[in-house]
Amino acid sequence: METPGLSVGAVARRLGVSASTLRTWDRRYGIGPSRRSEGSHRRYDASDVARLEVMHRLILQGAPPGEAARVALGGEAGREEAREPRAHGAGGNRLALSTAPARTRGLARAVMALNGPVVTGTVREAVARDGVVRAWEELISPVLRSIGERYAATGEAVEIEHFLSNAALAVLAEVTAPPPHTQTRPVLLACAPEEQHSLPAYALGAALAERGIAGRMLGARVPEKALRDAVERIGPGAVFVWSQMPYTGDTGVLARVPGGRPAPRVIAGGPGWARPLPEGVRFAASLPEAVEAVAEALGMPG
Ligand code: B12
């Protein structure tokens, strides 16, 4: 007599996961079929499938598999709801990215789990496959923004913010390894004095490297004098300065970049800068815009 219930392959197709994932969930989290066929094959009945559907949905929403399994095995709708975030992006164990592509949700999930190898691997793979600009705009930035929203709503997720920032900085720095020089004058990249947000400047350094442009990265919190000294020392063709926070956006820093012959093009980026910007300073509103502004200043427009 045939054993009733669905095979592992049938359930895998229904959920859109692989059969080996289902076997792993069974072994690791004890969420599997209630019975087996005579040949010891897994046979899933309707309630097994319903539990797996709950687990799968929670994972897609950003829950770590272990927790998703615990909730699914508990089986009560109320408990599942209890795991839902309290408000837009606030609380809960996930970030507000439910409509984002699977890869973005996957990164958010790995970030929440502080899973270093997966976070670094996902970012590295995206940069290698899609290039820095797409990886930054379509993968890294949405997750950073959702972390920011969560922080704004709850005051939490600072460890998550640091974790993703450090992983992303490491990958962007790998890409920024000096390419063969294709321009005559270097490019200086810096953050405004006391400005700790440096990721966008690193993203620019990496995107420029992809274009064969070697940026010299001074990083976060560059004192005005240090910026001026660096400009005088290397005579850059372009100087990019990032300000995220209003209290780091003193435009005098931009106005006082030393002239030289010819004077470097000064490019400002970030929402922190006060307005108006000093005469001659160009504002870049996005990563691709900043790449173009630097390339133009060096006489190598795309
Ligand atoms: C990562 C992060 C940090 C990290 C930075 C690590 C690093 N090495 O960069 C750390 C932990 C250090 C940090 C510290 C702080 N942070 Co913070 N942080 C962030 C976070 C999550 C991402 C920052 C980022 O890289 N943004 C870039 C992208 C992802 O943002 P975006 O909005 O998509 O970008 C826009 C533009 O900037 C532009 N753009 C994007 N990328 C690029 C690239 C280039 C080259 C250009 C030209 C343009 C450009 O296009 C977009 C459209 O306008 C933001 C959240 C956020 N939404 O930005 C908070 C956020 C900026 N931080 C915030 C705060 C409050 C702080 C702290 C004060 C917290 C604290 N209490 O200590 C400190 C400030 C420290 C300081 N003095 O600088 C607030 C700022 C609110 C405000 N405007 O006042 C934010 C917005 C979070 C929030 N919603 O509350 N932070």
Automatic annotation (TrEMBL):
The keyword DNA-binding applies. Residues 5-74 form the HTH merR-type domain. Keywords: DNA-binding. It holds the Pfam family B12-binding_2. It comes from the Bacteria. The keyword Zinc-finger does not apply. CDD domains: HTH_MlrA-CarA. This is MerR family transcriptional regulator. It comes from Actinocorallia libanotica.
